[in-house]
């Protein structure tokens, strides 16, 4: 850790350079522009009601009625009390987005390499190599901010692990605790899960090494010392973790009790479906994208321009030059196995050269946990293309079946490869390594990568046919000549990028050779390597994230503009819901931006709401829409959205004539096909102890909504006798407190998703108030935990200062 504090001016200079690099790459932010991130646009729609409430009331609602009929805001950027870790993180991300995340990439890897006792100049290069990895830039381009945020803290967590196993138990665990606390705070548990897999690999490799060297005692001492650090990191994020777990049980990631599909067949298993998990399985040959950027054609939407065969073929088909050019801007040149990709997961030919070089120079446990972690990540990223391993993890390894898009585990490779590359470079520059070892490593690395490049260049037509999944569609629409032209363009991209990677390999081999022959000074070598890395990575990154992706800040602040349909609906100031049919209702937050929608956009939707869609709403069953208080539909009318009122909606609350118990969720959802929700309530007896009952509802009985806010609804009613009321609000088992005339009463779920309440006769007032206990409890624990962290850190610093004074 001394290297972090000695010669601090050097580290301050590096930080300034990181700021400059982050702002330079995303330079439009200096003009006040904002990158257009599709996922963030959807998030803005989902979170608008919450943000409006926060701005007007000065508090968190923790519930929104604008999406999926109603859901907690725990996964929509809710702010929790005493979440000091999040506040510190906000201060660290002081740059305009997305330059802030790029800066975090840099800082994290820089700290890790310093913990490996790498020279600060090499650490600087390694940080740039990591931060500019194409995949890490692309996720910022599309708005996967939480993923980027989580990846940025990978190096801090690993730094702590490295120091602890180096027997620097106090400072290592302090760094590990802080890093893990930040990691958990990012709230991207898939990335955190992958990081924990890497940590598990490290623990195994270190254990084997300790066993071989008869150091098991010190190993177990280090391993056990992680426990309090892990506990404290968890407690610092306890509110978010408990809230997330609570909502996960309610979402599509949890169990709703339903065991049948809409067609009546049995559900195969809990968790996500195997096909859904492996939909984005990385192709085995696609692995070479790490070395050659457009090995598999680049992205699913590439711009080819006038020099392409497709452009010429479109001209031949009768298009004008302008039309042909426009057509050639969005072509599916990608021909791999995945459904869709925004860009190749390119690490850099220059970085892979250093990585292979490191394989020949570095020995010991560090090399093996990095290599083992990378290989595991690669094999798992193949998904269904390596089903033996994938099915084992899905069926056996805890929680692996909770995450989809298996190809995203390649973030571990994006992390490990630059790390080992710089460690290898450091080793190459070390005077302790013999000339012969360096020469052999350089010679072998060059032969391997040059040979691989030449193999692909010379045998490409024999090895590949460059056919893509969409070619059959183009064959029907444009004919065989068009498809041949597209394949020729794919082959041309393959050739040019293979030559590009070969050039970087030869350039690096040349400068290393000159350095070995003492014709090039070390500072010049590092400068040239840095230039090669930046030109290599930024050159590819700029193909997919560039100035064209930035828009005026106002566009992101108000990403959706009201249509006439929206304006017509908004003249109604009552409480109701909207069903927008102009797009996929469960894959768009546009309606949520303006209205209280039964649709929305989220990776973890409310489970029972999803099931209502699958069984009934997609089929247009009116009675289900009526009980959800869908007062307006938005249809596409010859290209224009049009609002259509629903006169049969059941309103905010109503009294029913009968309560019918059924055994379980299966029977409950099937019963919805036949009952009239205006008169009948279905309750699941395995969840709520209720008996069959009828009610003598009179025409004079009234119940109505008196006031509404995101987290509190007040109703009044007047009835001649005991009644059962249904409310067109989504039942959520935790947090909602219900009172009648100020006295708390229990409520239950009816008709699969709705709230139900048994009421006494007379005139009374009902209040539903969202007061989640998890927030109150978590806030207190987080406060105490942060105080403990501060005391431990301050105590350690004081002890270190006094210890130094005693030694002097």
What do these coordinates show?
It is a single chain. With 808 residues, this protein is α+β, with helices and mostly antiparallel strands. Helix content is 53%, strand content 11%. It is built from 30 helices and 19 strands. The strands form six sheets. A five-stranded antiparallel sheet has the order 12-13-19-15-16, with no helix packed on it. Strands 8-14-18-17 form a four-stranded antiparallel sheet, with no helix packed on it. A three-stranded mixed sheet has the order 5-6-7. Helix 4 (99-115) packs parallel to helix 7 (145-152) and helix 4 (99-115) runs parallel beside helix 8 (154-165).
Whole-Å distance between the termini? 20 Å
Estimate the global geometry from the Cα principal axes: globular
Any low-confidence stretches, pLDDT <50, length ≥5?
A: none
Helix percent reads 40-55%
> What structural class is derived from the secondary structure elements?
alpha+beta
Strand content: 5-15%
Q: What about the largest sheet?
A: 5 strands, antiparallel
Mean of all residue-level pLDDT scores:
93
